[in-house]
Each structure stands twice: as structure tokens, then as C-alpha cells.
Amino acid sequence: METDWPVIAARFALYLALGGLFGLSAFGLYGLKAGERASAFALRLWLVGLGLLGLLLSAIALALLAAAMAGTPLWPIDREAIGMLLSGSTIGTAWKARVIALIVASVAALMAAGRTPLLGVVVIASAIAVATLAWTGHGAMDEGAKGWTHLLADILHLLAAGAWVGALLGLILLVARPDRRADTAHLTLTHRALHGFGLIGTIVVGTLIVTGLVNTWLLVGLGNLPKLAASLYGQLLLAKLVLFGAMLVLASLNRYRLTPALKHAMPGGDQRGALSALRRSLGIEALCAITILALVAWLGTLEPPMSAM
């Protein structure tokens, strides 16, 4: 089977943009107070930008998928194939729901200006947009009770991943402020946001582990686990698990060592050194997350071992 790199790239970009939109808007809601959302970093600009980027990427992904399914070149665009995909499939229904959700999220983000109710609308709308991605993956291939279980696990997995990616983006934007502009108020806000992500992060990790186990059971099967390394699908899945483990180690380091170190440095200690250590750790964690999303985008185009039996 030939690897369809444009489709993989579009899937990866969508995961990153929509996950970032959902996770960053949620981070703005639980991690920042209303009066801090404009001063901490350009939250509204980021949310509007990610919402519009999601719309653009959705259009590109639809054209790529229609061309791949019809066996036609991407250009000129096959409008008939796109029309059939939109009107005669659950993927088309999910795509239309995503577009509506992204329009709502983008408009609400533009009007929010730190207001909690409108930011809540962005969170809900972007969560719907993320959830629609489940219909473009393996979660939509089963029927009946198994199909709904798989789809629900996929949706929760996507939302948890988005929450983590968006929170990482928010935390990186906080610690990336130049040292000369990082006054005591900003450092206090940054420490509180880092510390506050602890509980949310625990829920996110728990959700990822449980839904990941469900998906692995449904897609791979217990009998195929010893043979994972023999297939490309298994190799990518194992690489994803290794990177996830690295993210857990880095998240623990941030929570139990680097965040307390920032608090101890704030009264007049080595604030620059504490921030530098956090920047490195969060940067590596974000790189792991981005690589995982790329692997997931690739995995979604491959045939799972169980279905190949």
C-alpha cells in the first residue's frame, strides 16, 4: 500500500490546529482569571487564528480525501466527488458539523475579550470540532455496540490529547515571555497556571491511558500484542507509547521539581535559571506531543493488525 503523505500531513495539521484550539481555550478558562486573559499572552489572537486555520485545513483535507476515494488527482478539484462525500457519508456529515463548530468558535473567540461565557462557547464548539475527527479514523469502522464503544473511546482520546497539547501551548507562551518583561505578577501567574494544571493533567493522563487501552484492544487484540513489532502499524504504535512515556516523565519533572523551583526563585533567587529550565522541559514535551500527533495521523491511514487477520 502506497503511503499517502498529503493526506497524512493534512490529518496531522488538523489534529494540531483543532487540538490546540480546544486545549488552549480550555486552558484560558481554567488556568487564567478573566482579567489575565488579555495580558498573559495574545489569547484571542491565538484562538481566532487556530479557528480560521482549522477551517482552511478542513477544506484541504476534504479535497484530499475526495480525490483519494475517487482515485482522481487533487487538481483540478473533483467537485462531484466532494459533493458525493458530503451528501452520502457520515464523514461528510461530520465535516459539515466541524465547519459549523469552527465558525462558531472563531466568532466567539473574536468577541470574547476575556469574557468567561463566550470563552466557554469556544471550548464547547472546539470540543465538537475535535470530536468530529473520530469519524475520519478507525473509530468509525465498527458497527453496533462495539462501534459506539470504539467511537466514544476515540472521541475521549482526541479531547484528552487536545487538552494536553493546548495546555502545553499556553504554558509555553507564559514562560516564553522575555526575562526583562517577566515581572513578579507574571511569574506568579505562570507558577499558578503550572501548578493548576496538575489536577487537569492527572485527569488527561488517566483518560489517555484508559481510552488508549480500549483502542488497542479493539484494533490490535490481545493475541497480536507479541507481534506488534513485526508490522509498520505496530512499530509506529510502539514509538507512540515510548514518546508518551517520555511526556509523562517530563510532566512529572515539571510538576514536582521545576514548578516548585520557580516558586522558590521568585522572592529574588535565580528566576532566569528556573524559567530557562521550564522552557527546555516544556519545549521537549511539546516536541514529543507533536511527534505523537504525526504518528497518529500516519496510523490512521494504516490497516490495524486485527482487521488484517
Automatic annotation (TrEMBL):
Transmembrane regions: 12-32, 44-75, 118-135, 155-176, 197-220, 232-253, 282-300
GO CC, alphabetical: plasma membrane
Biological process, per Gene Ontology: copper ion transport
Domain Copper resistance protein D, first and last residues per copy: 192-299
Main location (coarse class): membrane
Membrane topology field: Multi-pass membrane protein
Record's keyword annotation contains Hydrolase: no
Keywords: Cell membrane, Membrane, Transmembrane, Transmembrane helix
Leader peptide range in chain numbering: none
Localization terms from the record: Cell membrane
PANTHER family, sorted: INNER MEMBRANE PROTEIN YEBZ
NCBIfam families: copper_CopD
Name the UniProt record assigns to this protein: Putative copper resistance protein D
